[in-house]
Write a structure and sequence with these properties.
Blueprint: H1 8-31, H2 35-62, H3 72-104, H4 108-137
Length: 142
Amino acid sequence: MSFDPAILPTVNAVLNGLAAVLLLGGYICIRNGWKVLHRRFMLSAFFTSAAFLVSYLAYHATKLHTAYTGQGAARFVYFVLLATHVILAVTVVPMALLLLWWASRGEFPRHRRLARWAFPVWLYVSVTGVIVYLMLYRGLGT
């Protein structure tokens, strides 16, 4: 039995979706003062997103491009989502690393200030990753 890299886009979408759920769980926990549970959710979201990044890079090391075939408004929506997703995904990595660093050092005021910006960006990247997958590989919007 050999590994088929064609499954990686689906794996990536599942990891993105799971990261979004974990982020929301972490947000709910911190809003309720459940700091230990918040930490677990957020570490899980971080490692899920890291697994996504490894899988994404592995896929694109074997296949560089998949063309979007949708037309009209769907095509416009796809490229707007894709562009914002990619640009914001690049910003999520350093923000997530800083958040982890500051939390590990107990620098919670700094952590909180950045988390107010990082959380919605990270959630947007995770959700739009799933939407881009559905549009590109499952024909959503065509």
